[in-house]
Amino acid sequence: MSRKESKSPTFDRIVEASLQLFNQQGERSVTTNHIARYLNISTGNLYYHFACKEDIINELYRRYSKGMADYLNAAGELSVNASIEGLVSLLEKVLRHLWTFRFIPQSISSLFSVNQSLRESYSKIEAGLISRGVEKLFFKLRDQGMLEGDDVQIGFLARNFQLLQTGWIARPDIARCPQEAQVVAREGCLSLLYFLAPYVSSRFRQPFERVLASMAPVPALPAV
């Protein structure tokens, strides 16, 4: 836990700079000394706000998970009265959010090995709140007629959709192309939509295919 409950401008500067450095250089390559030097502050000033690098990572994960929860709450408002374009817009926002915190899915295994607190938070939030939220959304889309499938199929679809969504950002080629945020979001969204395609009902098939056709091909990401 951070040392200061009341957040200061320096607290936020440390968090934001750490996120930038972790994304650009990889979390394992960045130390608290690097962060302090990047911000031109003393390590003592940094340690006044955070006892260690793991506390900074925990704060970043808190922000990441809060953003995901907010998007799931927004997804809960989707209905058949909303256009499929609305679903596409939501997916792209989620992917851009994942991109903002991309060091987390890209480094999650190594983070778990040294950060017990993060592992516990991840299990509680990712396997709990977020997974249940995605599953709830998919059952809602099924009940409203957009998707087809029995309970087992929809549950399986929701779990694998979440894995694909998070795994997309962890791809090695994406890690090497940090400037391609828009390409990542659009190409990732297309992959998710094609994954959903076999489950789209006949009622929504035509507008679904129209949306896919309207999404211009994006430049290919470099091969691994």
Identify the CATH architecture of the largest domain.
Orthogonal Bundle
Number of strands: 0
The radius of gyration is 19 Å
Count of DSSP-assigned helices: 11
The largest sheet, given as strand count, sense and whether it forms a barrel, is: none
**Model regions low in confidence, pLDDT < 50 over at least 5 residues:** 220-224
The CATH fourth-level homologous superfamily of the largest domain: Tetracycline Repressor, domain 2
State the helicity in percent bands. Answer: over 70%
Computed structural class: mainly alpha
Q: CATH class of the largest domain, please?
A: Mainly Alpha
User: Remind me, CATH topology of the largest domain?
Assistant: Tetracycline Repressor, domain 2
Return the string of H and E elements: HHHHHHHHHHH
Distance between the termini: 37 Å
Described by the principal axes of the CA atoms, the overall outline is elongated
- Mean of all residue-level pLDDT scores: 82
Number of domains: 2
Tell me the fraction of residues in β-strands, as a range.
under 5%
